Amino acid sequence: MSVRIDKFIWFTRLCKTRSIATEQVKKGKVKLNGEGIKPAREVKVGDEIGIVKHTSVFTYKIKSLLNNRVGAKLVEDYIIDVTPLEEIEKYKTYQAAQSAYRGHGTGKPTKKERRALESFKQWKNEDL
């Protein structure tokens, strides 16, 4: 049995959709055994998949192949997460920086806030 790399990363829920998986492989964000590949490249047991997410590279080792998409709880039967701790820490740092980037109530108003402001302005102008 052989499985394409784009299908495999979708089957094991490393990407939300198959089209996103194919796009990630085409952009070079997915590496197989450390080298760039095409979406149709076939994987085998023992291969290492590296997926770039923002500033980190997450690495997974293939335990066994599968024919269709599996539930999240069953994914661990097919891949082993071998990502180094420093990569995980780098990703957590990135996430913390993104969440601290814009606090609630700062920057551009939401649609609800904008409507309330416009309503207030109209009410104020009617009084004048």
Throw out a few tags for this protein.
single chain; 128 residues; alpha+beta; Structural Genomics Hypothetical 15.5 Kd Protein In mrcA-pckA Intergenic Region, Chain A; two-stranded antiparallel sheet; 4 helices
Summary of the model, kept short:
With 128 residues, the chain is of the alpha+beta class.
Overview of the structural elements:
- This protein has 4 helices and 7 strands.
- The protein starts with a strand and ends with a helix.
- Helix 1 (5-11) packs across helix 2 (18-26).
- It has a domain at 1-88: RNA-binding S4 domain (Structural Genomics Hypothetical 15.5 Kd Protein In mrcA-pckA Intergenic Region, Chain A, Roll).
- The model has no long low-confidence stretch (mean pLDDT 89).
- It is α+β, with helices and mostly antiparallel strands and 128 residues long.
- A hairpin with a 2-residue loop joins strand 5 (48-53) and strand 6.
- The longest helix is centred in the last third of the chain and has 17 residues, at 85-101.
- It has a 5-stranded antiparallel sheet with strand order 3-2-5-6-7. It has a two-stranded antiparallel sheet with strand order 1-4.
